[in-house]
Fold D-beta-hydroxybutyrate dehydrogenase.
Amino acid sequence: TLKGKTALITGSTSGIGLASAHVLAEQGINLVLHGLMSDDEGANLAQEFSEKYQIKTLFDNANLMDTSAISVFMDKATKTMGSIDILINNAGIQHTEAVDTFPESKWNAIIAINLTAAFHTTQHALSGMKANSWGRIVNIASVHGLVASKNKVAYCAAKHGIVGLTKVVALECAEHGITANAICPGWVDTPLINDQITEIANKESTSFEQAKYQLITAKQPVPDMMAPRQIGEFILFLCSDSARSITGSSLPMDGAWTAQ
Ligand code: NAD
């Protein structure tokens, strides 16, 4: 049983991270919630979770672009919760633009948040997991960790990078009861993709809903967006004992996107 273990989920104030937090909390897993929201909002969110699910919670809003803030955050999380048994590297941002004009600042931010932050959190979490001979690391990559799309140079570089990071961690942890996997989702219904939908709606003078359908079906054969909770359910399975031999894998959950 996973009850009483502690999961740290980066970017759990929104979208996939928040939905996954609910899925894990339903199992009695204690939570370190994290994301860009004020201390007050975060404290309220943490309190809601602990009251609803009767679990221990902690909130932190460390900016993942700041490596020393990550270090302080991870130390605080480990000290307060005892250990980090499950690490979900989920926080991420997007910017779409052709490589010719792609701003350096956006490149740096995407590489820092979507890739480098996971290196730092993993480095901090591993000693505790090794001491317990048990751990689960789940990195939320993307189909863009496996294949590319135009106008996503930094995102594809970061997501391909985290797939590589995941494989190395899996190899190094293979004898320690720790698994590391990357989930590679297609379209998931979250605020992250709103800018891309709005851009299509403006360009084609269509509604937000029509633009959304157009965006999905351009690449993904299954014509629906996934619900964020579906990713959470997949994470929960990867945390289970049944999944102990799944490690070093990059697992598409993509409505047949990468089957083509
Ligand atoms: P979202 O925008 O709903 O949530 C992003 C989270 O990351 C938020 O909690 C936000 O506060 C946090 N975050 C962003 N920048 C941060 C920073 N500098 N420091 C700390 N926290 C920061 O997005 P989402 O769609 O739920 O995305 C979650 C992950 O899933 C991302 O890695 C994304 O690339 C990946 N993903 C999303 C989709 C999709 O279609 N939505 C598809 C594949 C992969």
In short: The first strand starts at residue 6 and ends at 9. The chain is about 50% helix and 15% strand. The two ends are 38 Å apart (CA to CA). Helices lie at 15-25, 39-53, 67-81, 104-132, 153-173, 194-204, 208-219, 228-239.
